[in-house]
Write a structure and sequence with these properties.
single chain, alpha/beta, two-stranded antiparallel ribbon
Length: about 200
C-alpha cells in the first residue's frame, strides 16, 4: 500500500475524524505500568457486551475503567437514558476518559481506588444492573468483591489477565451467592503463559 505520512498540523477534531475513518480492527493500548499493553479486537468488545446481556436503559458500573476501553461501548449500549458509572484509580487515565466520553452524558467518571469509591456513602450508583470489571493482574481482591456484591447486580462480567487471580476472586463471589455462567479464554500474548479471560457470574 501507499505509505502514510504523519501530519502534525491536524487539530484534535481533524485527528478524531481521521481515526474514525481509518478505525483499525484491532486496538492496542499501552500503559506505563503495563508495557505489553492490552489488546482487544472488535470480536472481544462484542464478547463483553454479549456477556453483559441486554443493556438498554440499564445502570452499568465499570470498574478499573482506564481511559474508557469498555466504558464507551457500554455507554452506546445503555443509550441516552441509561447510566455508566466508571471508576478508575489512575488520574491520567481518568483525564483521558473525560476527553473520550465528552459527548456521552450518560457516563459518570470517578477517580479513586475502586474499593474506596464503592465504599463511599454518597456513591453515585448504590445498585447496578450489571458490573463490568477489568482489574490488574493481581485481581480485584476480597474488599472489591465484597463491594461489588453490595451493589446487588444480578450479573457480573469479569475481564481477567491472570487465571489464578480470577479463580480466587470467583471463590469470593461464590460466598455472596454468585455462580459461574461461562468463562472464555483469549490467547492475546502468544508464546507466553499469559491468558486473558472473560468470566460471567450471575445470582
Amino acid at each position: 500500500g501507499v505509505p502514510l505520512k504523519p501530519d502534525f498540523s491536524l487539530d484534535r477534531a481533524a485527528m478524531l475524524a481521521a481515526m474514525e475513518e481509518h478505525r483499525p480492527a484491532v486496538i492496542f493500548l499501552a500503559w506505563p505500568n503495563n508495557p505489553t499493553g492490552n489488546l482487544f479486537d472488535r470480536a472481544d468488545f462484542e464478547a463483553v457486551l454479549a456477556a453483559a446481556g441486554p443493556l438498554e436503559e440499564a445502570t452499568v458500573v465499570d470498574l478499573y475503567s482506564g481511559a474508557g476501553l469498555f466504558t464507551l461501548p457500554l455507554a452506546d449500549a445503555v443509550g441516552e437514558t441509561g447510566r455508566v458509572v466508571a471508576i478508575e484509580g489512575d488520574e491520567r487515565a481518568v483525564k483521558d476518559a473525560r476527553r473520550n466520553a465528552f459527548e456521552k452524558p450518560q457516563v459518570e467518571l470517578h477517580h479513586g481506588p475502586v474499593e474506596k469509591v464503592l465504599a463511599a456513602k454518597d456513591h453515585a450508583a448504590p445498585t447496578a444492573d450489571v458490573v463490568v470489571l477489568d482489574p490488574p493482574r493481581t485481581g480485584a481482591g476480597r474488599k472489591v468483591v465484597d463491594a461489588v456484591a453490595a451493589l446487588k447486580a444480578p450479573r457480573v462480567v469479569y475481564v481477567a489477565c491472570d487465571p489464578a487471580a480470577l479463580a480466587r476472586d470467583i471463590a469470593y463471589f461464590a460466598k455472596h451467592g454468585y455462580t459461574v455462567e461461562s468463562v472464555r479464554g483469549y490467547d492475546l500474548f502468544p508464546h507466553t503463559h499469559h491468558v486473558e479471560a472473560i468470566a460471567v457470574l450471575t445470582r
